[in-house]
Structure formats: C-alpha cells, structure tokens
Design brief:
This protein has helices spanning 2-17, 23-27, 71-75, and strands at 51-54, 81-83, 91-93, 101-105, 108-110, 114-115, 120-121, 128-134, 148-154. The chain is of the alpha+beta class. The radius of gyration is 34 Å and the shape is elongated.
Length: 160
C-alpha cells in the first residue's frame, strides 16, 4: 500500500507543479503607444531638529548667582543640556563632554567659558542679544564637535 501511494505521488506531483498558463497568452504580444512621464518635485522645507533659539527676555527669570545673569546657567535648564561637574558652568549636551560642545561668541570659538573653576561666567548677561543651541546636525564647517553647537551674539554697542 505504501509503495502504491508513493508511486502515485511520484507521478502526480510533477504534473501539479507545471505552470498552468494558457498557450495563447505566451505567444500573444501587444504594442502600446509611447508614454512620457513628467513630475515636479515639491519644494520641501526641512526643519532642523534639535535647534533651540533662546528667548533672551526669559533670561531675567533664570536663577542668578551673585545677582548676575548667566547665560550658561540658563542654557543648562534646556532639555538635553546638563551642568558640568558639581553644577559648574560647563555644558554637557546629550551625554557629551565639555570639549564636544563648540561655543561661538560672535563667531569666535571659546574654549573655556568660565572663571573661578566654573563659578563665574565670562559672558555678561546684559550684553547677550541672542543665543542658539544646535543639538542635532552640526555643519562640518564648524569642525569635529560631536555634541552641540552654541552660538551667542552680542548687542550692538552705543556710539558716543
């Protein structure tokens, strides 16, 4: 009985596995007119993620140290930004270290942004016009910083 079943399956399976297409569909071809495809790419504006423009008016509500406005103490309150060791003035962005954050003060790189072991800032809060922290994509033009780019602009000076 087993031999009969095995023989029947051996004969039936190849017949079932053959392609079941009608003979006329294989030999029939059809010519169509030419088609021209045109498209316009829509103008897309990509928003940079991770860019935070600081509202300088909010700086007056930030915690003060010795009565002095400190832009870096204010930046430490932003999401993804934390203070340096022991609450000092460093900026640790998304787990990076101080040397992985580029700080530009009117397009001049600042390598140490504090005095007295990070207690006193070198920036006067009264002179800051705008501040922006870029935690996402940083252009290669700014160098090999991994963590963030902080740009600080000062106010225009008064003329005599």
């Amino acid at each position: 009985m087993r031999k009969l079943l095995a023989g029947c399956l051996a004969l039936c399976i190849p017949a079932l596995l053959t392609a079941q297409t009608p003979a006329d569909s294989i030999s029939r071809t059809e010519a169509i007119d030419s088609v021209v495809v045109t498209a316009r790419r829509p103008l897309m504006v990509y928003k940079q993620t991770g860019n935070i423009a600081v509202d300088i008016e909010q700086l007056k509500y930030a915690p003060l140290f010795a009565g002095e406005k400190d832009i870096f103490k204010f930046l430490q309150l932003l999401p993804g930004v934390s203070a340096g060791k022991d609450g000092m003035s460093g900026l640790l962005v998304r787990g990076g270290s101080n040397d992985q954050t580029l700080i530009l003060y009117d397009d001049v790189p600042i390598y140490n942004q504090a005095h007295a072991y990070g207690i006193l800032s070198i920036f006067s809060g009264e002179t800051v016009q705008s501040a922006e922290v870029s935690k996402g994509f940083i252009s290669p033009a700014y160098g090999s910083r991994l963590s963030a780019l902080t740009q600080i602009r000062t106010r225009e000076g008064d003329r005599l």
